[in-house]
Amino acid sequence: xxxxxxxxxxxxxxxxxxxxxxxxxxxxxxxxxxxxxxxxxxxxxxxxxxxxxxxxxxxxxxxxxxxxxxxxxxxxxxxxxxxxxxxxxxxxxxxxxxxxxxxxxxxxxxxxxxxxxxxxxxxxxxxxxxxxxxxxxxxxxxxxxxxxxxxxxxxxxxxxxxxxxxxxxxxxxxxxxxxxxxxxxxxxxxxxxxxxxxxxxxxxxxxxxxxxxxxxxxxxxxxxxxxxxxxxxxxxxxxxxxxxxxxxxxxxxxxxxxxxxxxxxxxxxxxxxxxxxxxxxxxxxxxxxxxxxxxxxxxxxxxxxxxxxxxxxxxxxxxxxxxxxxxxxxxxxxxxxxxxxxxxxxxxxxxxxxxxxxxxxxxxxxxxxxxxxxxxxxxxxxxxxxxxxxxxxxxxxxxxxxxxxxxxxxxxxxxxxxxxxxxxxxxxxx
Length: 430
Ligand SMILES: Cc1cc2nc3c(=O)[nH]c(=O)nc-3n(C[C@H](O)[C@H](O)[C@H](O)COP(=O)(O)OP(=O)(O)OC[C@H]3O[C@@H](n4cnc5c(N)ncnc54)[C@H](O)[C@@H]3O)c2cc1C
Prior knowledge:
By secondary structure, the chain is of the alpha+beta class. It has helices at residues 32-59, 64-72, 91-102, 106-127, 133-153, 270-277, 286-304, 320-346, 353-381, 392-400, 410-422, and strands at residues 12-13, 16-17, 157-158, 177-181, 184-194, 202-209, 221-227, 233-236, 250-260.
């Protein structure tokens, strides 16, 4: 495992001058262990992933090599409890580390998020939820199997929940169904935009348990890890999107896929409880975009100072209009950082109404703000800065995708903030 110093400022490693952390450990009161994990992610991102990002983007190719490095660095198990061989990071530490990865390769950070979420839902988050002793013991035994695969073998999990209907927004039960049969379930359905399709070892599928003659209910959501090689699973469709091209988010089809009972990532009923009581889990798509916001800002400062590798050392910083643009970007960045840091720090079970509204506001601010900063960066750096030989145009395209991530798209955040700020639960105007 690589060793990384807990650096408080830029430090040279392998000849590379490391960027300062997005969240300075001293200023943001991180302990040494947290700072060390976040620094490990930043070093890997800057020293290794940044150099590979353009090719994954150009070819819309999954970052397989990065996943081998994440495994070697222990980061596939970042949120796995220490007693299971992981780094035991909490939600906040994971979010900060993911922002550092997103700063250097958006597609790696976003897909890593899908993987890590399977360990967050089943790990620290499940520990906060109600289960009777027998259920908790069973969950402990089952998750140990998943964690051993991840920590030991480098197994990669994905998290396909989108189906193209109202289910991913939390409105109705998932249309992908699990029919109880002897020893497990038969799963049938379809997931769209399934990042890591064809590349994950296990698909962490959210589906509805529906017995013969029953009606589908969100309360009966199951979270099952389907082995990618299981009979009845196919990956279909092409993948040639605007941004986040390395996520390879193709369509997954399930046709009578047999899943044994012990493949459950969470016990019956616990996912529904988690979705109700731990809403900050839906904020986990934002760290990637926090990193992209920082990346667009970093690029601009370097470029205007004439210090961007691969470009002539021409300074443009002396023009007042560029100084104003950088000031606007810096203000926006600090606003995003402040609300986002607060939201990921206070994440936990049973948040207050104010905390939930703040989480929506943080998601909206990051997802829209990252693209606003990238837009300003392109305008003020100019034409030579948006060539494909430089990372800015990729950051711009990747950052545009943030607002589209269900269930907390930018539109849905506005929708929820407006309604939930004006109405208490159950209140109507009738
Ligand atoms: C790069 C990328 C990677 C992704 N990876 C994954 C993944 O790994 N797993 C996964 O499950 N999904 C993933 N998604 C999918 C994502 O969460 C959406 O499901 C996807 O963008 C498809 O959305 P849609 O166009 O079908 O949305 P629609 O449901 O058609 O909605 C379109 C827009 O309408 C708005 N809207 C939707 N419902 C409502 C409502 N009830 N009220 C008001 N407004 C509403 C939302 O703003 C939404 O953006 C990914 C998406 C992208 C772009």
